[in-house]
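Appendix B, Record 12. Input sequence as logged:
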Amino acid sequence: MTTDRDYRIDADAPIGVFDSGVGGLTVLREIIQQIPNERLIYFGDTARVPYGSKSKETVTRYSRQIVRFLESFGVKTIVVACNTASACALEELERESRVPIIDVIRPGARSACQVTHNGRIGIIATETTIGSQVYNRYITRLNPKATIVEKACPLFVPLVEEGLWEDPVTDEIARRYLTELIDRDIDTLILGCTHYPLIRATVGRVMGEKVRLVNPAYETAKTLKEMLKERDLLRGRPHVLGEDQYRFYVSDEAEKFKRFANSIIKYGILSAKIVNIEEY
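Logged structural output:
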């Protein structure tokens, strides 16, 4: 990766954030709350969602296209707000990008290792993320004695995308997926997909009060803030009226995305522009 010694990065430049669809908005929400002065550009790949059932090669190709798109805005850093893209493409993105790359997996793994008491950590994620074993590698590196229990939950993403956060169907699917994790005596569970915090209440009810839920969206925003502070890249001035603070782009279904985004961000997203991401 080209470092900021080779490429001048402006602290006033925006931060790029991307996801396969709307799940990364949970990361964006945390960034807005933790570092409110920042300018943000979000891309949701709504035409090609979900990433979780696609191959590593395909997800990597998609991710590289999106990074090139975000870099065209002169961003100062890029947040890969998608566990599947982080699992599949992170190393290649870090090699190619001229700005720092923040992923969602390492912050979540680090937090889980810090909060667990019995060393038994559960992970729920997409099939591709689970298959990559990337969480296992990071957790084992931090705590070689940890016991890791994984479960792919592929139906959670479409349920979230359809807005069924509090619905009997989601409750039933969650019970079916999570029962085996309860039986394994885990005390910590990583919500290993950025869609999953939107059904955190459901997962929490099924798992019970004794299981600590780790939200990588929160941990990622925290890590981003720390990195920007260390590199003297935090934006020092607050936003002014009329400034283009947040910009949203998608690959399809802009109106549907806008409605969904407003239900999460709740500050009034006026527009989302469609981009032909295959051009990048």
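Residues 15-103+219-279 form a domain with the Rossmann fold fold (CATH 3.40.50.1860).
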